[in-house]
Amino acid sequence: MKIDPVRRRLVASALAAPFAARLPHAFAQADRRPVVNIAVAELPPTLEPANELSNVGTRVTYSIFDTLIRRDFLGSPDGGGSALKPHLAVSWERRSPRELIVRLRRDVKFHNGDTLSADDVAFTFAEGRLWGAKPSIAEGPAYFGVLESVTALDAHTVRFVTRSADVLLEQRLSSWASWIVNKRAYESLGMDGFGQAPVGTGPFRVRRLARDQIIELEAFDEYFMGRPTARQVNFRAVPQLATRLAGLAAGEFDMITNVPPDQIAIINRVRDAEARSVVLANSHMLTYNDKGPAMADKRVRQALSMAIDRKALVDGLWLGQAVVPPSHNYPEFGDMFLQGRQLRHDPAEARRLLREAGYRGEPIVYRAAPHYYTRSLDAGQVVIEMWKAVGVNASLQVVENFTQMRAAGAQVGQWSNSTRLPDPLGALWVSWGPAGIQQRIGQWTNVEAFNAAGAALEAETDLGKRRALFASMLDIWEDECPGTILYQPLETYGVRKNIRWRPYTFFFMDLRPDNLSFA
Questions:
Q1: How far is CA 289 from each of CA 29, 128, 358, 407, 409, rounded to the nearest angstrom?
Q2: Nearest-CA neighbor of 203 among 519, 514, 507?
Q3: Among 87, 244, 361, 479, which is least packed, fewest CB within 10 Å?
Q4: What gap in Å lies between CA 320 and CA 314, rounded to an integer?
Q5: Starting from the edge strand earliest in sequence, which strands make up the sheet with 157-162, in order?
Q6: At a CB cut-off of 8 Å and minimum separation 6, what does 508 contact?
C-alpha cells in the first residue's frame, strides 16, 4: 500500500497544531515525547472505572487508574498471565481465610495532587458503592458482594474482611471493578460527575472528554512507576473499519483496534505498521430471553444452540484463528478446569427439540449492534442461516446499543463474557449469577438451583468440593440455556512498528512505562 507523503504531512500538522497551541513554547520544545493517536470503534460514555466495565471502557480506564495488586499479564507469552505482584500495595497478608491486611505504598499521588491513603481505598470498596443492599455501582456485587467490611487501620493499612472464606480475594483486588478512586474528588463530584472528570493514580489523566468523539489523556509525570513515555494519548472514535485502516496507513493513527483476521495481511503490507494479535479471555455470546413466545421453552433455546456450527464460524469469519472453548469452562481455571466438556453441534437433535417443544414457526429475532464486537453482524447473518436450516423462522435486527438490544421484545441478543478471575467465580458466576445483568433485568428467571450452587462455591475452599459445585452450575446453565458461547475471538491491533507495546488477553490497553516505549 503506497503512502501519500503529502497527506501524511497534512494529517500530522492538523493533529499536532491544536495541542502545540495550548502549550507554552518552551515546554512544547522541551517535551519530545510523542503523542499517540489510537482509533477505536467506540468510546465509553463515562470513565467511572467500576461503572464502565465494558470492553470499550476498560480499554481507556486501565491507564487512568491503578489496582492495589497487579496481575502480571505479560508473565505469560500469550499475554494472559495470572500471577500477582505488588502495585499500589507494597504487601498483603492473610490473617485468616476471611481477613486480609493490605499495606500501601507511601509515594503515590492522585492526579489532583492528593496522596493515596487508606481512606481512599476504604472508600473505593465501601458498602453502598460496590456492595451492600443498594450499591451505586450495579455490577459491584458481582465482584465484591463477598465483602463484610473494609477498614482503614491507619493512613497506610487497610483490612478486608469477607462474609465467608474467599480463596479469590487477592485476585479480586487485582481485577475488574477494583481500580482505586480519589475519595475527595468522588464525594465532591458524585458518581456521574466523577465519570466525566475522573481522578486516579494512573500514568495518564483526563484532559478532555467529548462524547462519541475523542478522549484526550495527558501524561501524569508524578506517576509512581516513572514518567510516562508518551506526553499525550488520544482515543478517537472511528466506527468504520476502512477508515481506521486508511488512517493507520496514512500516518493519522498510531494504533487501531478491532481488526478482523482477513485484514492482517493488509496491515502487514504497510511499510511502518504491523498487526499484533491475541486470543482474548473473552467469549462472544448469544443471550436468550427465557420469557415470551417460543423462547420460554428451554427446548427451543437448546435447539438454537445445537444448530450453531461454531467451527464453521471460526473457519469462515476468523480464518481458523478464534477458539471454541469447552463450554463456559476455560483452561485458565487451572485445577478448576473440567476436562471432557464440549459445546454440542447437532442439527438433527435441534429439529427434534423444536418438534417436541411444539414450535410452529413463531418469529425469533436476533438483535446485533454493528460496531461493538468485531465480526458481530457477519456472525449474526451466518447464525440466522443455520437456524433457518433447522426450521427456525429467524431474522436479524440491527440496533445501535445495548439499551435497544435489551429493550422490550428482546429474544436473542449479542454479548460477551470475560474470564475476569482465573476461576469459575470470575467468569460464569460474575456474568450469570444474581449480580449479572441477565438476572438483574429478568431475562433469565429459573435460577434457584444455579444460584444456590454458586453461593456455595463462593464459600467453599476444598478443591474437590469446589469442582463438584462448578460442574453442577455448568450442568444447570447448559440445561436451562439462557445463552450460549460462540467463540473466543482473536483481537488484532494495527500498530506502528516503532511502538514497543504488547496486548493483553483482556481489552486493557496498558500504557504504563513498562509496556509502552518507542524505538
A1: 58, 30, 18, 11, 9
A2: 514
A3: 361
A4: 5
A5: 89-96, 99-104, 157-162, 147-154
A6: 58, 59, 62, 73
Alpha helices for 285-375 (secondary structure H): 298-306, 310-318, 347-356
Cβ atoms < 10 Å from Cβ of 382: 18
What backbone torsions phi and psi does residue 215 show, to the nearest 5 degrees?
-125, 115
Q: pLDDT by residue (tens digit) across 459-516?
A: 999 999 999 999 999 999 999 999 999 999 999 999 999 999 999 999 999 999 999 9
Instruction: Report, as an integer, the average pLDDT of 271-292.
Output: 95
CB neighbourhood size of 226 (10 A): 11
Nearest C-alpha neighbor of 500 from the set 488, 485, 517, 483: 517
**Distance (Å, whole) CA 35 – CA 12:** 11
Which stretches does DSSP call E strand in 306-458?
364-368, 394-398, 412-418
Enter the C-alpha cell of residue 5. 507523503
> What structural domains and CATH numbers belong to the chain?
5-45+202-279 (3.40.190.10), 65-193 (3.90.76.10), 282-488 (3.10.105.10)
